[in-house]
């Protein structure tokens, strides 16, 4: 049976009214919101939005970090018959203007004065905008309302009027817009229906056996579908507790307070945890290092044995007691049963690092256009395979097209792109297959492996088709390297841009015997470059001759969202990188 978000949310609020739904920090203390109060706040906020001029079918733009107000604003918009559209906190005023204008936003909800400044700069270019609501703080502008002003505004609209808006909605109606992060030009508004969300989330919840006893930490950008399914929509189907991390910087500390039962990270989060653990391990005394190396050997063998349903090594239990259990406890992942990596490809080196510590990272592959997950792996025999994204979500189908593209079909597939029929027709064919733009393979167990982006295939001057993601994953195993961009389209040979890992740079400079004092100096240092060249030579032996990296350039700084080289979900913006570092790239071909 198809259901709307409002029906599901009400059922959960009625069933788990006094249980804790949300927890966030106020003055250093965790403050709780019950399911009953959460539901009530959503309804009050929906009425307030209607009083401020929110029309049916229009939008609300939400610009802020993860917090209860973000969740409440999103759901209140849906209850009021509008569509929420999240905006990444790192977006510029011009990018905010595009999304708010394109979605026809009547209301913008902003986190603070800094984010308000972006909308003040562009509000004259937003003819549909009627009000701006601040999650925190206030402003004298008559168009701006403080969060605490909303209950008074809500008094102007009756519960009956809100109920009419709720009842007018059908499960197949579009209820939210997810704006793609725009690796190639302006973002597209992905139209997702009530049924897309409630059905997809329920399939995943049933698969991972999640329920009201679970604890989830919300910290990834809520403008992204992955975080919305995990911490916004999934929880109101199961009645569990969501904790809001204070910030990405405080994630490590918050994990040790929350002890989540399910933890989702993008590859860069897992890579940063890995780098910190390796840096800490390098400081251990020799005996401790020896025990850790022995345990990791047991862990890796045990992880691969488990995948095939074979017995783990005899000493795996001892390694778990001596090392793995302590690692989990120190990370705050001691009661976590599912460790997920999603949103972008992850290096095999990182997957095997965690597998060797008894923490099997399982990959979820998907995209906004299929409401998040297309595949889900579980840390159980025969249900995961390191380096593979796992089988299709139950009730859905994946297949590989003749040109290698991954296609998907099922109730999770979106309604189309808002105001962009041409892009919809290009992505969604007449038989209902969603064309992912990714190239992959499916094994005899139905496990999917993504090998590259269809449109990012490098075609060399010699006509060779080379998948950059495969090469980049291998090049990231060079211990000093954080990010890699492979260059070679219409070129005679392959080159690469490297950025260095700040967590590892001190140790790597020492290993290289370089006099450099920091990342920028290491990038220019001949001795350090020679050290990287030696490591590159080893990796090149695993590539076909045409794939080998002939030259490289080390950039003096990391790629970042602020620098516009990465999307907020840490995907490479290749077009921008190629333009921004054109001088460095051309120098490698002289």
User: Could you name the CATH class of the domain at 5-258?
Assistant: Alpha Beta
Structural class: alpha/beta
Can you give the helix content as a percent range? 25-40%
Overall pLDDT score? 93
- Cα radius of gyration in angstroms: 25 Å
Overall form: globular
Give the beta-strand count: 26
What is the annotated CATH architecture of the domain at 5-258?
Answer: 3-Layer(aba) Sandwich
* Separation of the first and last Cα atoms: 64 Å
Structural features, described:
The protein has 590 residues and is an alpha/beta fold. Among the domains are: 5-258, 3-Layer(aba) Sandwich (Rossmann fold); 457-588, GMP Synthetase, Chain A, domain 3, CATH 3.30.300. Strand 3, helix 3 (68-79) and strand 4 (83-87) form a beta-alpha-beta unit. Helix 2 (35-51) crosses helix 3 (68-79) and helix 4 crosses helix 5 (113-122).
What's a quick, concise take on this entry?
This protein has 590 residues and is an alpha/beta fold. It has 21 helices and 26 strands.
Key words describing this protein structure:
single chain, 26 strands, 590 residues, 5-stranded parallel β-sheet, GMP Synthetase, Chain A, domain 3, Rossmann fold, globular
């Amino acid at each position: 049976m198809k259901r709307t978000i409002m029906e599901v949310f009400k059922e959960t609020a009625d069933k788990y009214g006094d249980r804790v739904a949300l927890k966030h920090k106020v003055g250093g203390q965790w403050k709780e919101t019950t399911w009953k109060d959460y539901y009530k706040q959503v309804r009050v906020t929906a009425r307030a939005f209607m009083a401020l001029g929110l029309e049916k079918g229009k939008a609300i733009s939400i610009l802020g970090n993860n917090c209860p107000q973000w969740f409440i604003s999103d759901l209140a918009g849906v209850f009021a018959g509008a569509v929420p559209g999240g905006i990444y906190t790192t977006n510029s005023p011009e990018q905010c203007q595009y999304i708010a204008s394109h979605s026809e936003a009547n209301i913008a909800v902003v986190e603070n004065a800094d984010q308000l400044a972006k909308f003040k700069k562009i509000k004259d270019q937003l003819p549909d905008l009627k009000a701006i609501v601040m999650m925190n703080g206030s402003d004298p502008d008559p168009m701006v309302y403080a969060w605490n002003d909303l209950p008074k505004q809500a008094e102007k609209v009756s519960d009956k009027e809100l109920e009419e808006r709720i009842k007018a909605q059908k499960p197949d109606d579009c209820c939210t817009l997810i704006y793609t992060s725009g690796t190639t030009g302006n973002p597209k508004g992905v139209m997702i229906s009530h049924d897309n969300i409630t059905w997809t989330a329920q399939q995943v919840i049933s698969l991972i056996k999640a329920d009201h006893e679970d604890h989830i930490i919300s910290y990834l950008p809520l403008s992204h579908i992955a975080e919305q399914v995990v911490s916004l929509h999934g929880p109101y189907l199961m009645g569990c507790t969501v904790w809001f991390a204070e910030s990405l910087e405080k994630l490590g500390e918050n994990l040790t307070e929350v002890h989540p039962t399910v933890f989702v990270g993008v590859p860069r989060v897992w890579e940063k945890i890995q780098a910190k653990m390796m840096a800490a391990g390098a400081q251990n005394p020799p005996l401790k290092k020896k025990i850790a190396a022995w345990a990791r050997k047991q862990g890796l063998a045990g992880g691969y044995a488990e995948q095939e349903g074979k017995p783990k090594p005899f000493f795996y239990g001892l390694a778990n007691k001596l090392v793995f259990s302590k690692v989990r406890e120190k990370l705050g992942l001691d009661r976590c049963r599912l460790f997920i990596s999603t949103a972008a490809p992850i290096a095999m080196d990182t997957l095997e690092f965690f597998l060797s510590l008894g923490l099997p990272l399982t990959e979820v592959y998907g995209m906004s256009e299929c409401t998040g997950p297309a595949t889900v792996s579980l840390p159980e025999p025969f249900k995961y395979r390191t380096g593979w994204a796992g089988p299709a979500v139950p009730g859905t189908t994946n297949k590989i097209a003749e040109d290698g593209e991954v296609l998907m079909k099922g109730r999770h597939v979106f309604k189309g792109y808002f105001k962009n029929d041409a892009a919809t027709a290009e992505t969604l064919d007449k038989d209902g297959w969603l064309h992912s733009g990714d190239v992959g393979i499916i094994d005899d167990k139905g496990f999917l492996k993504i090998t590259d982006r269809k449109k990012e295939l490098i075609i060399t001057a010699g006509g060779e088709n080379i998948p950059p993601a495969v090469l980049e994953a291998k090049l990231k195993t060079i211990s000093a390297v954080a990010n890699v961009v492979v260059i070679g389209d219409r070129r005679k040979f392959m080159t690469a841009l490297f950025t260095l890992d700040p967590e590892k740079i001190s140790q790597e400079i020492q290993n290289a015997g370089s006099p450099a004092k920091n990342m920028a100096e290491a990038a220019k240092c001949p001795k350090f470059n020679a050290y990287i060249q030696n490591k590159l030579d080893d990796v090149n032996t695993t590539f076909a001759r045409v794939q080998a990296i002939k030259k490289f350039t080390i950039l003096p700084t990391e790629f970042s969202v602020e620098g516009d080289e990465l999307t907020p979900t840490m995907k490479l913006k290749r077009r921008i990188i190629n333009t921004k570092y054109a001088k460095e790239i051309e120098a490698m071909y002289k």
